[in-house]
Design goal:
about 325 residues, alpha/beta, Glutaredoxin, 2 domains, five-stranded mixed sheet
C-alpha cells in the first residue's frame, strides 16, 4: 500500500497553507460534473437559465424556494393547492415541520422542460415532473423538485411536493410503497378523493380476482424498478385504507413516520403494527366494499337530473 506523506512531513520546504487550499479548490471545481452545483445552486443542476438566458428568480414560499423565470403569480392556484398538501400532511400525519428548504425549479413550458429533462436525467423514462434527494457540495438543500408550467402542474406539484415535504420533514428515506402511496393519495384534492370512484373500482376488482398485493409484499420492495402501475395502485389502496378506516389505523402511519424521524430504523413495520390492532386484508376488503357503494351512490346522485317542481294547479 502506498502511503502519501503530508508536505510538511517530508523534510522539504513547507507549503503555504493558503496556496494549498486555493489549489485544492481549483482541482475540485475543475473535476466537477454537470450534476454538481459548485458555481451556483441555480446554474447546476437546473440547466443554464431557461430560454430567456437570465438567472431565474428565487422566491421563498413556505417550505419551498421556487426558481422561475416568469411571474410566480401566474401559477397562483397551483401553489395554493400545494399549500393545502403541506397543511394536510401536517394535520393528518402529525409529522415534524420541514427541517430543510426544498428547491423547486418550475420551467416555463413543455419544450424547455423536455430539453432540461433529457440533459439532466439521461436514460430516465420521460415524465412531467421529478423529485430527487441527494447531496450537493456548497448547497445544503438536498430536496429538489422539478416541473413545468402546463396542464398537469397542479397534480405534479401535489405528488412530487408530497415526496419533497416528507423527505424534508423526516430527513430519512420512506419505504417505497408508503412514499408512493402517500404521494398518490395527496395528489388528489379532498373533493376528488370523496367523489371519484375510479381507483376504488379497480382495487375492488383486484381484490376479487386475487391479484391484490398483501402489505408484506409491498414492504419488501426496495427498488423503483419494481414499482409497476399495479404497485402504485395497491400502495395507494393500503395508504387510503390506513388513513381513513379509523383513527387507530391512521395513528399507525403517523407513529411509524415519527419513528423514522427519530432515527429508529428497526422500529416495527406497518404490517406488524396493523396485526396487533386486528386490522389487515379482511378489514381492507370490508372498507373498500363499503367505500365503493358510497362512491357509486354519490356518482348516481350527481348524474341524476334534477326533478322539476310540479306545476301549481290553477284556481277554478
Amino acid at each position: 500500500m502506498t502511503t502519501r506523506q503530508h508536505p510538511c512531513a517530508s523534510g522539504k520546504a513547507s507549503v503555504d497553507r493558503r496556496a494549498f487550499l486555493i489549489s485544492l479548490i481549483a482541482v475540485c471545481v475543475s473535476g466537477a460534473t454537470s450534476r454538481d452545483a459548485f458555481s451556483s445552486p441555480i446554474e447546476n443542476p437546473f440547466g443554464r437559465f431557461g430560454s430567456s438566458g437570465k438567472r431565474p428568480a428565487e422566491i421563498e414560499r413556505g417550505a419551498f424556494a421556487f426558481q422561475v423565470d416568469f411571474e410566480l403569480s401566474e401559477i397562483a392556484s397551483e401553489l395554493a393547492s400545494l399549500d393545502e398538501v403541506a397543511a394536510e400532511l401536517s394535520s393528518t400525519l402529525k409529522i415534524p415541520a420541514p427541517r430543510e428548504k426544498i428547491l423547486a425549479r418550475v420551467l416555463p413550458d413543455e419544450a424547455s422542460w423536455r430539453a432540461f429533462f433529457q440533459k439532466t436525467f439521461p436514460g430516465v423514462a420521460y415524465r412531467t415532473a421529478m423529485f430527487e434527494r441527494k447531496e450537493y457540495l456548497f448547497d445544503a438543500r438536498k430536496e429538489r423538485l422539478y416541473a413545468f408550467r402546463g396542464p398537469t402542474l397542479e397534480v405534479d406539484l401535489r405528488h412530487e411536493g408530497t415526496h419533497a415535504l416528507l423527505a424534508a420533514s423526516l430527513r430519512r428515506s420512506v419505504p417505497i410503497w408508503l412514499d408512493e402511496g402517500l404521494a398518490e393519495y395527496f395528489e388528489e384534492t379532498p373533493r376528488e378523493r370523496a367523489e371519484n370512484p375510479d381507483r376504488t373500482t379497480k382495487v375492488v376488482a383486484r381484490l376479487e380476482n386475487g391479484s391484490f398485493a398483501p402489505l408484506e409484499r409491498l414492504e419488501s420492495v426496495s427498488v423503483m424498478t419494481a414499482a409497476t402501475n399495479a404497485f402504485y395502485l395497491d400502495s395507494w389502496a393500503w395508504t387510503n385504507y390506513l388513513l381513513n378506516d379509523s383513527s387507530e389505523t391512521r395513528a399507525i402511519v403517523s407513529e411509524y413516520l415519527n419513528d423514522l424521524a427519530r432515527s429508529r430504523p428497526f422500529a416495527p413495520k406497518i404490517s406488524a403494527r396493523l396485526k396487533k390492532t386486528g386490522g389487515g386484508e379482511e378489514a381492507l376488503r370490508r372498507f373498500y366494499r363499503a367505500r365503493l357503494q358510497a362512491l357509486q351512490a354519490v356518482d348516481a346522485n350527481r348524474r341524476e337530473p334534477p326533478q322539476s317542481a310540479a306545476p301549481t294547479p290553477k284556481p277554478r
